[in-house]
């Protein structure tokens, strides 16, 4: 099968588009013929050796894929050949076929494959962040940094479902328009962020911040928190990992909350499955709708990842084998 192959931790242009052995369905594994593979920011870090996980080489990156069941192992009970499914896979998504255990595979019916991928990691991360980590309540103020990205769009839509007032923060007029189109009550830039948030909350401060950016934006938000607020640490797309002055948490009485969705899926599989059922239900009811910026040939993975890591993408990007 054709796949994107990482032969060594190296710059993105060193990724190879080549041949790998077809996966075989063993035990409780399902082999999926991939219709779309979702592109995520951590994928670009992983192949450069900059992520928490450092797999042995060679490996195929890609943590989400959707398509049609091609074969099943002898212990599989929930799926059959021909079913349309999506999966969270630690590795292997950037390929024509991928194998994953039955427990990590979800039925998608006639759902668009790229939409299904977006619901897995991008919407899954934001859902977990706002539900289990922030315990977001109706009427609270939610600030979403990186609001036009895949997880940002998801956080806006989910925040509105949960009854929050959503303030989106994005770097350009185009991105702020995207945030408003996806339900944000207000959309602002990063300039004078602390002063803007103080004015917009009437001096009370922000209840929940969804921060996938880091850097100076984190510093501004840390100084803008309401008492009992929750500042969610999603990632550092801005490139800088900030240093936190812990006296702020003491004086302002807010919480700094880490969000590692991959750990959540491993340690709380039942809660993860419940979350996915809720997300799929929201999708079926038209309450959430991923923004798919583009669909690109699998061979263009290096170029696509370069744009994602440079924060040049909006919404979700899918690779099509």
TrEMBL record:
EC assignment: 1.-.-.-
Family annotation (SUPFAM superfamilies): GroES-like, NAD(P)-binding Rossmann-fold domains
Enzyme class: oxidoreductase
UniProt keyword list: Oxidoreductase
Residue intervals of the Enoyl reductase (ER) domain: 10-319
Molecular function GO terms recorded: oxidoreductase activity
InterPro entries: ADH-like_C, ADH-like_N, ER, GroES-like_sf, NAD(P)-bd_dom_sf, Zn-ADH-like_protein
Highest taxon listed in the record's lineage: Bacteria
Gene3D superfamilies with a match to the protein in the record: Medium-chain alcohol dehydrogenases, catalytic domain, NAD(P)-binding Rossmann-like Domain
Any single Pfam family the record assigns to this protein: ADH_N
PANTHER family given in the database record: QUINONE OXIDOREDUCTASE-LIKE PROTEIN 2, SHORT-CHAIN DEHYDROGENASE/REDUCTASE
Protein name, per record: NADPH:quinone oxidoreductase family protein
Species per Swiss-Prot/TrEMBL record: Seohaeicola saemankumensis
Lineage of origin: Bacteria, Pseudomonadati, Pseudomonadota, Alphaproteobacteria, Rhodobacterales
């Amino acid at each position: 099968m054709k796949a994107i192959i990482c032969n060594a931790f190296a710059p993105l242009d060193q990724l190879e588009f080549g041949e790998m052995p077809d996966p075989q369905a063993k035990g409780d594994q399902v082999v999926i013929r991939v219709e779309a593979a979702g592109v995520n920011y951590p994928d670009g870090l992983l192949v450069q050796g900059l992520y928490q996980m450092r797999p042995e080489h060679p490996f195929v990156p890609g943590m989400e894929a959707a398509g049609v069941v091609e074969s099943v192992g002898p212990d599989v009970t929930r799926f059959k050949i021909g079913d349309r499914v999506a999966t969270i896979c630690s590795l292997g998504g950037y390929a024509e076929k991928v194998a994953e255990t039955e427990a990590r595979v979800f039925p998608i019916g006639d759902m668009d494959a790229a939409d299904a991928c977006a619901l897995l990691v991008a919407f899954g991360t934001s859902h977990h962040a706002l539900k289990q980590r922030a315990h977001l309540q109706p009427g609270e103020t939610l600030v979403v940094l990186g609001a036009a990205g895949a997880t940002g769009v998801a956080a806006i839509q989910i925040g509105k479902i949960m009854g929050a007032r959503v303030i989106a923060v994005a770097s350009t007029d185009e991105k702020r328009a995207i945030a408003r189109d996806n339900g944000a009550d207000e959309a602002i830039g990063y300039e004078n962020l602390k002063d803007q948030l103080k004015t917009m909350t009437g001096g009370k401060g922000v209840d929940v911040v969804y921060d996938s950016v880091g850097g100076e934006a984190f510093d501004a938000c840390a100084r803008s928190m309401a008492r009992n607020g929750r500042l969610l640490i999603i990632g550092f797309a801005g490139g800088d990992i900030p240093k936190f002055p812990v006296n702020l948490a003491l004086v302002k009485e807010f919480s700094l909350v880490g969000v590692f969705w991959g750990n959540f899926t491993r340690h709380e599989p039942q809660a993860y499955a419940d979350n996915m059922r809720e997300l799929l239900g929201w999708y079926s009811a038209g309450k959430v709708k991923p923004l798919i910026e583009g669909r690109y040939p699998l061979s263009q993975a290096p170029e696509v990842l370069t744009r994602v890591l440079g924060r040049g993408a909006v919404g979700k990007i899918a690779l099509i084998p």
